[in-house]
Amino acid sequence: MRIKALLTLCIIPFLLFYSFPMVALGAEEKEDDWQEEMIYFIMVDRFFNGNFDNDYEVDTDDPKAYHGGDIDGIIQQLDYIQSLGYTAIWITPIMKNEPKGYHGYWIEDFMEVEEHFGTMEDAKRLVEEAHKRDMKVLFDFVVNHTGYQHPWLEDPEKEDWFHEEQRMIGESPSVLENAWLASLPDLNTENPEVKEYLFDAAEFWIEETGVDGFRLDTVKHVPKDFWKEFNDHVKSIDPDFFLLGEVWHDNPREIAAYEETGIDSFVDFPLYNAMDQSFQAAGNSLTGPLSIWKTNEERYQSPEMLSSFIDNHDTVRFTRRAVENNQNPVTRWKLALTYQFTMPEIPITYYGTEIPLDGGEDPDNRKMMNVKAADEELKQRIEQLTSMRQEFPALTKGAYKELYNEDGMAAYQRSYKDETLIVVINNDTGTRTVELKDLPSGKQLRGMLTDDIAREVEDGTYHVAMEREQAEVYLVEEDTGLNWGFLLFIGGIFAAFVVAVIILSRKSKTAETDGIR
Question: Taking the model in full, what pTM does it have?
Answer without folding.
Answer: 0.88
